[in-house]
Each structure stands twice: as structure tokens, then as C-alpha cells.
TrEMBL record:
Family of this protein: Belongs to the TMEM106 family.
GO cellular component term, pick one: endomembrane system
UniProt-recorded name of the protein: Transmembrane protein 106C
Residue stretches making up the Transmembrane protein 106 N-terminal domain: 36-91
Pfam families the UniProt entry points to: TMEM106, TMEM106_N
Organism name: Oryzias javanicus
Segments of skewed composition (Polar residues): 8-17
Length: 267
């Protein structure tokens, strides 16, 4: 073993010494070789070493460079877990945006959602009675009142009001009103209209009854009222039916509700 180590030592020593001796003379050549090596390394193409769990970049095609003509066409993708994106704040901003959109949409739906206009028959306000003795007719002017309630946040237009008066299933009077009134948002309004009634040849006994020298001359008539309203892009129709007790022997001014029936509105 000792001989072996000595031989190795003797063989190594001259080589190292020779290198030191030749070092001073060849320093210039070594520096030139270093420059040449660096230039060669700079020109050496980029090589991407991929393992089992990775793939070669399809954009740079293994060169590590992007063509200049594709600079404006490529999009950089940053993973969501990158801390530069501050994921916690991103979640907060997204959640606040969703809540804000829901709040705005709910408010818009609440204020602009159309609600049905409430129409009520407030009864008769006055009845004016006249007699045509030559033709034995009873002529009456009946003034009725309608109450409108607008629960919407926008105005409602009452397009038309039509009324028909019947006595014993016979039409004795009609009235048609167009573009009568506008109901303001969240408010109530009243509409008065007068219907002319004529009872004659169809029921001649009414004239005799109304002109009798008695205190009360009550007759029953039937009224059908149709109201059309429009708001936003919606049009609805309300139908009201009521029975009225009228004293056909004298003029009267009073507030009478009567017995009324209201049909559901037709959209």
C-alpha cells in the first residue's frame, strides 16, 4: 500500500508542477479561450428540460423566446393562487359586486314591478228626477263616484269608463268616458260621472208608480261599470256590478253605497 501511494504521489506531483510552470506563459491563451467559450455559450440555443410532470412551452417552442409579431396576440395567464393577485381581496371584491348587483336588481324590481290598480264604486252622489207627462216617461240623471287607489311608484292613466244601467234586464241608460283622469303614484283619486236614464214604454207602470201621491217611490236598478287603466306596458280592466235603490218620485242628493260586486281585474 505504501508503495502504491508513493507512486501515485510521484505521478501527480510532476503534472501539477508542470502546470504551474506553464501557467505563466499560457495565461494569455487561457483568457482568449474563455472569451471564445462565453461567446459559444451565448449563441447556444435555449433547451427546456422537461420531466414526467411537465411539458414543453407550446408558445416559445422550446426556444425560450416569443416571436415579435405575436407580442400583441398572446395573453399571460397567472394562477389564482399567486399571492400577487391577493386572492382574499379578490374574493371580497367579487362577493361585494354580486351583493350590489342583487341589491340593485331587487330595488328596480320593487319600484318598477306593476301592481294592480284598486277601483271601488263609491255609490251615488245625487239623482235628479224629471217626468215627461205626454209620453209617460221617467227621466233621471244619476251621478256616481269611483275611487281609484294607485299602489305603484308611477302614474296610472284611466283610459276609459263605461257604464250601463238596466231595469228589469232592460238597458235604460249608458255612458262612455275616454281619457278621464290620471292617478299619481302612491295616491288616490275620485271620478264622478253622470248617466242619463230613461224609463218609459218598456215599463209603463214605473211612471204610474213614481207619480203616485205616496212618500217613498223606491225602484231597483242594476249598474255595470267597466274601467280600463294603463301603466308602463300593461293594460288592465276592472268590472263593477251593483244594485241601487232609487226614489223615483223626487230629487235626492246623498251618498249611497248600495250592494256592489267587483270582478277581478283582467290584465
Amino acid at each position: 500500500m505504501g508503495t502504491l501511494w508513493s507512486r501515485r504521489g510521484s505521478s501527480v506531483a510532476p503534472s501539477s508542477a508542470s502546470r504551474r510552470e506553464a501557467g505563466d506563459g499560457d495565461s494569455d491563451d487561457d483568457s482568449l479561450d474563455g472569451l471564445v467559450r462565453r461567446e459559444d455559450i451565448a449563441q447556444f440555443p435555449y433547451v427546456e428540460f422537461t420531466g414526467r410532470d411537465s411539458i414543453t412551452c407550446p408558445t416559445c417552442q422550446g426556444t425560450g423566446r416569443i416571436p415579435s409579431e405575436q407580442v400583441n396576440e398572446l395573453v399571460a395567464l397567472i394562477p389564482y393562487s399567486d399571492q400577487r393577485l391577493q386572492p382574499q381581496r379578490t374574493k371580497l371584491y367579487v362577493g361585494l359586486s354580486v351583493l350590489l348587483c342583487l341589491l340593485v336588481s331587487s330595488l328596480v324590481a320593487f319600484f318598477l314591478f306593476p301592481r294592480s290598480v284598486v277601483v271601488e264604486d263609491a255609490g251615488l252622489r245625487s239623482v235628479t228626477v224629471r217626468f215627461d207627462h205626454s209620453s209617460k216617461k221617467v227621466l233621471m240623471n244619476m251621478t256616481s263616484t269611483l275611487n281609484f287607489s294607485n299602489p305603484n311608484f308611477f302614474s296610472v292613466l284611466v283610459q276609459s269608463v263605461s257604464c250601463q244601467v238596466l231595469y228589469m234586464k232592460t238597458v235604460v241608460g249608458t255612458r262612455q268616458l275616454d281619457n278621464s283622469t290620471t292617478v299619481l303614484p302612491l295616491s288616490q283619486s275620485q271620478l264622478n260621472f253622470t248617466v242619463s236614464v230613461e224609463i218609459g214604454s218598456s215599463a209603463p207602470y214605473v211612471y204610474a208608480f213614481c207619480t203616485m201621491p205616496i212618500k217613498v217611490h223606491n225602484i231597483v236598478i242594476f249598474m255595470q261599470t267597466t274601467v280600463k287603466t294603463s301603466y308602463m306596458v300593461r293594460t288592465s280592466q276592472n268590472s263593477l256590478e251593483s244594485y241601487r235603490y232609487i226614489d223615483c218620485g223626487a230629487n235626492t242628493t246623498y251618498h249611497q253605497m248600495g250592494v256592489q260586486r267587483q270582478r277581478p281585474p283582467l290584465a
